[in-house]
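Final report, Chapter 2: Outcomes

The project's central promise was a pipeline that accepts a single protein chain and returns its three-dimensional structure in a standardized token representation, suitable for archiving and comparison. That pipeline is now operational. To close this chapter, we reproduce one record exactly as it appears in the project archive, with the input sequence first and the structure output second.
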Amino acid sequence: MTQGNADITMNDLPVFSAELHPYRSLGRNGHRILFVIAGALSFAHMAVFMISGAWPVVLFFGLDFLVLFGAFWLNNRAAKAREVVSLSRTNISIRKIDPSGRETEHVFNPFWARFLVSRKAKIGITAMHVRGNGRQTDVGTFLPPDDRERFASAFSGALARVKRGY
């Protein structure tokens, strides 16, 4: 292998890499417990109203449970989205994977790209964008404020190191 090929492969090695996931406070076991409790309560109330002769109310309790289940199903589906951010000496790659698995990749030259962070005084970071060559993409829109701060600090530091040439 020649020296030129070694430089090319060394330049393509990631200096920074992060996989960003939406935060969800309730895990798989938490969902099971929630639905067992909600189902038991709904069933108990349905039985009380059915015994008392108010059978139309039973339909509403069943509908409420289905709406709750549907909302959590959509929330869990949205949690499958993720972004893979990779920075090397030759490019910035931002791969966005939506809940259905469809991928979109945005590639920028790190020497021409800018990492833009929008802040509000009491909230913190409200938006992060990578812009370069007349294109722009947002990064980490689903992250909570603390994670946005950590990501912005780590990514901007890595991008600065790449631009300085280490």
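Archive annotation: The first strand starts at residue 16 and ends at 20.
This record, like all others produced under the grant, will remain available to the consortium after the project formally closes.
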